[in-house]
Write a structure and sequence with these properties.
By secondary structure, this protein is mainly α. The radius of gyration is 19 Å and the shape is elongated. The mean pLDDT is 88.
């Protein structure tokens, strides 16, 4: 799993790496062209996605938006 180790070096946050690979695999399965040359004709979409990340062809952008607090409910008055 050389591409997995290289990809983890680029994206050390494992949950983020999993999401990136998952999304890219879906795109590849839908017919999108790889951003890198596959090592062989039988290379899996997952390994292609990992290779793309390892070679810096894919990156993730994280947007931090403030979470709105729900308005405090007023106590029920009877």
């Amino acid at each position: 799993m050389k591409y997995l180790d290289l990809a983890k070096g680029k994206v050390p946050n494992i949950p983020l790496l999993i999401n990136m690979v998952s999304r890219r695999v879906r795109l590849l399965n839908r017919g999108e062209r790889p951003l890198v040359k596959p090592d062989n004709a039988q290379m899996s979409p997952m390994n292609i996605a990992l290779k793309e990340i390892a070679e810096g062809k894919l990156s993730a952008e994280i947007s931090f938006t403030p979470v709105r607090k729900a308005p405090e409910s007023s106590p029920l008055s009877l």
